[in-house]
Amino acid sequence: MDRIAYELKTKETDSSVIEFIDNVDHPKKREDAYKLLDIFSEVTGYPAKMWGPSIIGFGSYHYKYASGHEGDAPLAGFSPRKAKLSLYFAPEEPEREAQLQRLGKHTTGKSCVYVNKLDDIDIEVLKEMIKQSMEFTKRMYPD
Predict the structure, then answer these.
(1) CA–CA gap between residue 67 and residue 28 (Å, rounded)
(2) What is the DSSP letter of 119?
(3) Within a domain: residue 56?
(4) Distances from the Cα of 22 to the Cαs of 59, 67, 91, 96, in angstroms?
(5) CATH classification at residue 24
(6) Is 114 in a helix, a strand, or coil?
(7) Domain count, the chain
(8) What are phi and psi for residue 114, nearest 5 degrees?
(9) What are the pLDDT digits (tens) for 46-76?
(10) How far apart are CA 138 and CA 141, in angstroms?
């Protein structure tokens, strides 16, 4: 793959976060998305921004890998997907596994934690995870 031609799909945009949430089909997912908006805004202290067409991100950092690949990403974020709510955290964060044990009903991907609905998880643990992940990422990628 030609590295010069490669462009990140997930970039910060000027799209409206509120408009995006308003267009979430499922009423419970929409309600949970508004709750997550409040939780992430409160914990991160950053305003919500759209990243790509479907991720709501808070804050940002610049990363550069040994391969030379670099870009920008949100410090924390979520997306109200059709199937589940996707929560984005630093995958290497050392406290992550212990926190996931206490979070409640969820599944995981590389950097995602998937939940069906907020009623399934402990919101205080979620807040802890957002804060820890954000602090960890800031240490890993200082400006």
Answers:
(1) 42
(2) G
(3) yes
(4) 22, 39, 29, 31
(5) 3.90.1150.200
(6) strand
(7) 1
(8) -105, 130
(9) 999 999 999 999 999 998 878 888 889 999 9
(10) 5
Contact 77, 111 (CB under 8 A): no
Instruction: Render pLDDT for 83-131 as a digit per residue (tens, 0 to 9).
Output: 999 999 887 888 889 999 999 999 998 779 999 999 999 999 999 999 9
Please report, as a single letter, which amino acid is at residue 88: Y
By C-alpha distance, which of 87, 128, 129 is closest to 110?
87
Q: Domain limits at 49?
A: 17-140
**55-58 β-sheet, strand order:** 48-51, 55-58, 76-80, 85-88, 112-115, 107-108
The amino acid at residue 71 is: G
Q: How far apart are CA 92 and CA 28, in angstroms?
A: 31
In a domain, 21, yes or no: yes
Say what the alpha-carbon torsion angle 55, 76, 72, 6 is, to the nearest 10 degrees. Answer: -40
The first and second tokens of residue 38, run together, are 């409040």
Contact 141, 90 (CB under 8 A): no
Question: Does residue 122 lie within any of the structural domains?
Answer: yes
Residue 41 lies in a domain: yes
| C-beta of residue 58 within 8 angstroms of C-beta of residue 47 | yes
- The pTM of this model reads 0.89
